Amino acid sequence: MKQEVRNFSKKYPLWKACGFHDDFRTGYHYISFANGYAYATNSHILVKARLTDISNFDEQDLSLLDGKFIHGKLFKEIISCKGNVTITADAIVVEVEECKISYPLVTGIKFPECEKVLVGSEVTEWKKEFGIKARLLNTLSEVMGADYGIGMNWKSNRMFEVKPLGLSGDIKGVIMTIMVN
What we know:
Elements: E1 30-34, E2 37-41, E3 45-50, H1 51-54, H2 59-63, E4 69-71, H3 72-80, E5 84-87, E6 91-96, E7 99-104, H4 114-119, H5 134-143, E8 150-154, E9 159-164, E10 171-176
Antiparallel strand pairs: 1-2, 1-4, 2-3, 3-10, 5-6, 6-7, 8-9, 9-10
């Protein structure tokens, strides 16, 4: 009988929402794990995904991730692996045949308070003109596994809440608007 391979789903490439080009805010290079969710941001977009929706690990394994971070490029490697993945207190370990590769989980990274951003502020006025970078919208769509498109709700004076259409899991994001004239 073949054992189920454990891993994060390739359908949700969270690493694409990381800000690898921001050398001043290196926390954006990481994916954060907190309270059963994974968060990734590059300061223009932010994605929040329930870990049980984007992986096939049990709650006990996922609880080991709480309060920890993994570099987005390492997360990319992990989800591309064909081997079995286990979570320990200080690493995500991939086992392929007799070879084990350990990807370190770290703490103490300066990362934005994502929940405060997701709650947003009350809409005080509707902006009649705003801009959105199309490539960021495309990135959000990819990261959230939105095969059927995305829905957007005006969240505050500077951002939209974004949800994938046709998916039942708890994954959402935000996209910041840009100035027009």
